[in-house]
Each structure stands twice: as structure tokens, then as C-alpha cells.
Amino acid sequence: MNARALLLAAAAVTACASPAAAQDMVITNATVATGDGSDPVQGATVVVRSGRVVAAGQGVAVPAGMPVVDGTGRWVTPGIFASLTTLGLFDVGGVQESNDSGARNSPFGAALDVAPALNPASQHVAVARASGITRGSVYSQPSSSIFGGQGAVVDMGADSTMLVRPRAFQMVVLGEYGARLAGGSRTSAHALFRNSLREARQYGSDARITGGGARGQVSTGDDIPVDTRMIDNAANRGDDVLLTRFDAAALVPVVRGEQKLYVVVERAADIRNVLALRQEFPRLDMVLVGVSEGWLAAREIAAAGVPVIADPLDDLPSSFEQLGATQSNVGRMIAAGVKVALGGLSGTTGDQPKNLAQYAGNLVALTRVPGATGLSWGQAFATITSIPASIAGYGGRFGTLTAGAAGDMVIWDGDPLEVSSAPVTVYIDGVEQPLDNHQSGLRERYRDLDESQMPKAYDW
């Protein structure tokens, strides 16, 4: 990284100050979308007090003594929840030293935890915040193992910490990607996956048998304790185990159903095989990710009650496991009763979550394409707000403007699902957030192309 890039990155650190106090406010006469799947309503009011939503909709009374903002011509929505992202894990993707989104040479897989690597001063966080994203789930890219490790739920606030919940989910990748990591075929990937779950189940059972408390405990993720005597005495596990003791410990809450398991899978046959794992491991709390051919197995997914985080850009086959890809995938799954959020790994929404609103808008546009299956405006907006929040375990708290929800709110200058619209003001927990970042600074620097003032070195 050159000196100028380092100076730009250093400047971002100063943006992370102590958390500000939540603001009490009322916004009136706005077009309001609550994020619950309903269509937006005009001439509505939103009331936020002490960082929480009090009420939103038409006919809401304005409490006496509260500051009132006229929202005429504006749209007000909950903040966008990015269901899969690497925000906070890298500064420059091509500079290995600044990129913590994957651990290619690590001896660990499931035991990896993104929390210590999160950087709230990353410019990618600032750009996402300026795009209306207020919360998200951060994952670690599976690299040395089919397991990526334990992801976290975060916020995009301009303060010193972004962690909302550590060890919120575990990620495993199957299909063609998993096959490459596991030895070259799906047979190897599935064998490794099932064996890992069996080892974790046995590991957790043995740890319970040994008892806890007397010798001290360690966390295996999500505050699930495993007795340290079991971790230290690795010889008791036998000589045919494949997982390190720390990877096995990290998977204990997964097999107990106490930590969500995000399974990356595309092909319909692979989806059905993953769902069948519930017969052997009935407590698995699974979320399917990618799911390009999900519409072909939509009835089975819906019957299993497993939610989906679907890549909205898989409209043409890019591999043999995506031969059934169609942009109608999301609409068809939702029509079959599947809970679907928009998201994907790196290259789609993982490293560019600011495009989520555009992708949701594409699904609305599909309703005008003959033969295609799209979504209503309210349905599409819910796939990037309340539904991903619900999948992450925060239904009714994030991604919605309903009573008691966090005061995560975005004021837009137009329809947020139109690419011509942009956020005017962003609040997280009722605190107004700065929208400046390197991109906006460069835009302002060169807006008039006044060469007499060049170069304005290191302003941003």
C-alpha cells in the first residue's frame, strides 16, 4: 500500500468517536415503508423516542414537545439489513495484510471468529452506512476448510465498536466450492461435513459427561461452555478424528441447535441432501445460502421451514450446479412459502452490499416481464430489511419501523428501490450518522475540475 493510501485509511480512524445520545424526533408528511412486507403509505408519521420506534403510519399523533421534521417529498424506511457481508474485515481487498475476510492457510476452520478482526473505521463500513445500511451479518469466507467460522451481527454506527452479537452463526460451504476444499468431489465434502457434525456431537456429549465448573470452562461459541478437562485431554478422542479440538468445540452449539448454521449450496439435488441431514441431526437450525436452483426444491424448503439467503444476480448458469438459475428464483420460492432474504458471497452483495436496494428493485421490475415471477414493492423491500433481520434472530427489533424496534431509520430523497434515489439522513439507534466517506470526499474534490487548486493532497 502506498503512502497516500495509508494516510487516507488513517484519516478514517478519527471518524469513530464515542457514541452520541439518541435523538427524540417526529417526521411527518412522509412516504413511509415499515419494512414488514406492506406497501409504502403517503402522508405518514414516524415517532422515535430514546432510540426506539414508538409508532409509524398514517394517523399517528404527534407527541407534545418533541422536535418535528417535515418529511414532505421524502421517503422514510427502516435501515437496510445486509444479510451476508464482509464489511469491517478488509480495507483494500487486493492487499493481503489488510484483508481478514478469509484465512486461507489457517489450521482452523469452524473455530475462526470474525469478532476480533472487525474494524468500524473501515471505509467500506462508511460507504455502506451512506447507502442506507444500518445492520448486517458479517461472515468469514471458507478458505482452508469447508467451514468459514463464526460470523457476527454488527451495526454500521460511526463509533468505536460495531459488534452487536458475536458467534451468531457458523458457515459451511458445500456444492462445487465445498468439493474443491474437501478433496475434489461432493462425496468428500458431504462425508467431511457429516463426520464433523458427528465429532462435534460426541465431543459435546463427552464434555457434558465429564461435568463442568470445577476445573473452569471455555466458550465454544454463543456462550456454550465445554469443560476444559475435555479440551486438554485430546487423547480421549481417539486417533481417527479429523477436527482439531477447537473446531470440534466450536461446532457443539451447532449440533445442539443453539447456533445457526449457514449452508452455502446451489444445486437442487444438493439442497435436498442438506435438508435430509435433519434426519440424523434434528436440532440443526439451518439457513440455506446461494440457492440458485432453489425454485426447483421450493416445496421441500418451505415444508422444512428453512429460510434462504438467495443471490439475486444468479439469472444465468455460471457453473454446472446453476443450470436451473433464473431471476425468477426468489419470486418463485416466496410464492411457495419460503422465507427469503437477498444476499450472497463475495462478488455480489458480500463485498458490495450498497447494491441491495437496486437488486430488490429488480425483483419489482420483474412483475412487468411476461412469464417472470417478481415481487410487490413491499415484498421486495422486506427481503433487505425485516426478513434478513428475522433470519439473523432479530425479528421485530431490526429492519422494521414498528413499536419497540431499534431507531434505525433512513430518510431518502425518493423511492429507495430506484437507482436514482439516495439517503439524505441515516439514524442508528436514534443517533444521526455521518454520511461522508472517501468516495464522497473525492466527488466533492473534483466536482468542478478546477485545476488551479490541484493537487489537494491528502484531504481524504
UniProtKB/TrEMBL annotation:
Signal peptide coordinates: 1-22
InterPro entries the UniProt entry points to: Amidohydro_3, Metal-dep_hydrolase_composite, Metallo-dep_Hydrolase
Residue ranges annotated for the Amidohydrolase domain, each copy included: 328-430
Annotated GO MF terms: hydrolase activity, acting on carbon-nitrogen (but not peptide) bonds
Bias (Basic and acidic residues) ranges: 441-450
Region (Disordered): 439-460
Recorded superkingdom: Bacteria
Keywords, sorted A to Z: Hydrolase, Signal
PANTHER family, sorted: ALPHA-D-RIBOSE 1-METHYLPHOSPHONATE 5-TRIPHOSPHATE DIPHOSPHATASE
Protein name: Amidohydrolase
Organism: Qipengyuania marisflavi
